[in-house]
Amino acid sequence: MRFMPKTLALVSALACAGLAQAADIKIGVAEALTGGAAQYGVSIRNGFQLAAEEINAKGGINGNKIQLVIEDEQGKKEEGINVFKKLIFQDKVLMVFGPTLSNSMFAAGPVANAAKTVVFGTSTTANGITDVGPYVFRNSVMESDVLPVTVATATKHYKLKQVAVIYGNDDAFTKSGYDVFKKVLEDQKLPVTTTETYVKGDVDFKAQLTKIKASNPDAVVCSCLAEEAANIMLQARGLGIKAPFIGGNGFNSPKLFEISKLAGEGTFVGSPWANTNPTPVNKAFVAAYVKKYNAEPNQFAAQGYDALYIAATALKDVKLTGDLNADREALKNALPKTAIEGVTGPFKFRPAQTKSGKPGGWDADQKPFIYVVKGGKFTLYDAK
Q1: Domain enclosing residue 220, as ranges
Q2: Are residues 79 and 198 in the same domain?
Q3: pLDDT tens digits along 171-183
Q4: Interacting residues of 234 by C-beta distance below 8 A, sequence separation 6+
């Protein structure tokens, strides 16, 4: 009988060891699943869920299964902060993916950074996001990497001599996109005939478009989210504006065509992902996504999918100890060294160049694809 306690202790220890070896890795996902930004957030969530299912089906990460803790941050700054606090301090997740919009990241990102918890954006492309701090990562390619190529390609294709500009001036993403567009147009010596603005909630753009029409541009540069862009396109055609559009990352949503129909024909847009990319990993992703969701994936689903694989690859080299603070720090140190061949192509991180010169987070080091809209669909641009 005196051996029983040791036996029980041994059984208990073995059971605990077994549990440790097969523990869930809790990962937070904070995306806009309702509200205007749901057109992006739902696709991102779908990408995460598909990747998690695949990774878990193959045995997880070093035997540990991924458990996604998904929250709706509604595309609102205040809700983003609340959701981040819940995930980090109550749910005690290892890391947080999200939020969907740059506005929300500027608000909620500091919560994660202060808690020394990795926050990983997949759709937050505004400049300055990774200035928040060293725990901020993103695989969303910055507008400053995409827009110069987009504008140069459209300029060459259409032989542009001058353009008009319209953008939302009360949103971090669209304002940041405008700032990049402005610099790109200056650098490429492309004159601007007029610059027009609007605010969130606007649905009538006729006043701005009337001024744009009068300025006679060869193209209209638009830093807008998809729904606003689609309505601007429709109203522009209604006023007789035939000039093509040049858009930023906000255009990359099926919502653009659901509303604009064929009004966006000839639009040029840059993207980190091409649905027609013939690599085996991308073809497998598209097929799996269509099978699971009965819908075609978009850029946002692809980036969510890749993001989880990036994190999973980093975690393979992390020995999780059960000490949450130590594990969070170990992941933060492993991520910068991670590179994958994803559905968006070859991916790696590069250190953020912060305005202050202080250590920042990590940006995507990736080349964009250029699309032109044909037949109400994004088509990979071929200069031939």
Answers
A1: 144-271
A2: no
A3: 888 999 999 999 9
A4: 259, 260, 261, 263
